[in-house]
Amino acid sequence: MYLNTLNIIPTPKIIQNIREKGYFFIENAVDLKVADQLLKEVNIDNISVNKNEIGVVYSGNQKFLSNCLTRSKTAYDLITSPKVLDICRSYLPAIYQLISHQFAQTRRGFNMPWHTDNNQQLDSKVFVKHQMPGLIFIIYLSEQNISPFQYIEGSQLWSSNYDSERYISDAWVQKHYRKDIRTFEMKKGDLIIFDLHGFHRARPFQDRNHVRNIFQFQVEQINENYLGHGEQNLVNVGFIDNPSPDILNYLGFGIPRKYPILAKTSIATMSMGELISLYNQLFYPTLKAMITNLGKALIPGEWQVTLKRRLGSSK
Predict the structure, then answer these.
(1) DSSP state of 163
(2) Exposure letters 180-211 (e unless 16+ CB within 10 A, then b)
(3) How do the pLDDT tens digits run along the chain, 315 residues long?
(4) DSSP element (H, E) containing 36
């Protein structure tokens, strides 16, 4: 139901391509109805303000939902699908775990430099690159894409030479590895799987009307030298309809995780337009709350109960 062309591609072919080139690209990997369902469940416009639920956050020109497994059964089914697990099992010979997952929406002006994702963190800061094997799966959810995914073919084999660098410049890449850049004009439902040690990026865009929606998750082979590696995975237990020991270990049950959930956000990471929109949403509810609280302070408790009873209110 959830994976189309990916299911009919032999896993050994996928693994061989990733080992040699660093990536494997699959068109129409996810059914468009499934992609739409994922977008609906994520509900990227649902910003939580004093709501007792997991919400979307802003960081500059991006929106994130970093705990999709609390809100989306579709996300859970994709992450735990037999084909995905078979790929991970074949590429990562030892115990592998889901390290992070998120839905991300990017708008114009955001520039992600060339980078690798083999990051080891101290609190919220990357302080060293690790050498554990790992894979990243990115499903594109935009109808059109003018900011294609780019990967430097074969870079997973030599990127450790640059572990002291958090990013590398596009000018440097163009000078030294231009012929090895592979560009994927990805559309809604397409999937790219790649070795996280390879240099990659999404090409920057400035189109005012374009947004890029992606769902991505990262799986790594964790050894005893990296205990605590990874973000906390919050999971709606009602989604787990296949609770085998392997699945629970893959999701991180009972395994300590020390990293904070990224991106780190606050009111300060919201744009002026978003702040104005938030203000408009809050103004009348805030005014109503102030009047209600003032009334509660002035009216005795017994009168409040009597008034609620007469109005038929249970609150």
Answers:
(1) T
(2) ebbebebbbbbbbbbbbbbbbbbbebeeeeeb
(3) 567 788 889 999 999 999 999 999 999 999 999 999 999 998 877 776 667 677 787 777 788 888 899 999 999 999 999 999 999 999 998 789 999 999 998 887 667 889 999 888 766 566 688 889 999 999 999 876 778 899 999 999 999 998 888 889 999 999 999 999 999 999 999 999 999 999 999 988 777 778 889 999 999 998 777 777 788 888 999 999 988 999 999 998 988 887 766 666 666 566 666 666 666 666 666 777 777 777 666 676 666 666 666 666 545
(4) helix 32-42
Phi and psi at residue 35, to the nearest 5°: -60, -45
Assign 3-class secondary structure to 103-118.
EEEEECCCCCCEECCC
Distance CA(183)–CA(270), nearest Å, equals 31
Share in percent of the chain as helix, strand, coil (round to 5): 35, 25, 40
Q: Between vectors from CA 123 to CA 118 and to CA 128, what angle results, nearest 5°? A: 35
Phi/psi-derived region of residue 43, left when phi > 0, alpha when psi is between -120 and 50, beta in every other case:
left
C-beta contacts of 287-295 below 8 A and 24+ residues apart: none
The answer to whether 55 and 48 have CB atoms below 8 angstroms apart is yes
What 3-state DSSP class applies to 200? Answer: strand
Separation of alpha carbons 250 and 247, rounded Å: 5
- Dist CA 198 CA 97 (whole Å): 19
Q: Cβ atoms within 10 A of the Cβ of 178, count?
A: 9
Task: Write the CB contacts of 19 (distance below 8 Å, at least 6 apart in sequence).
Answer: 91
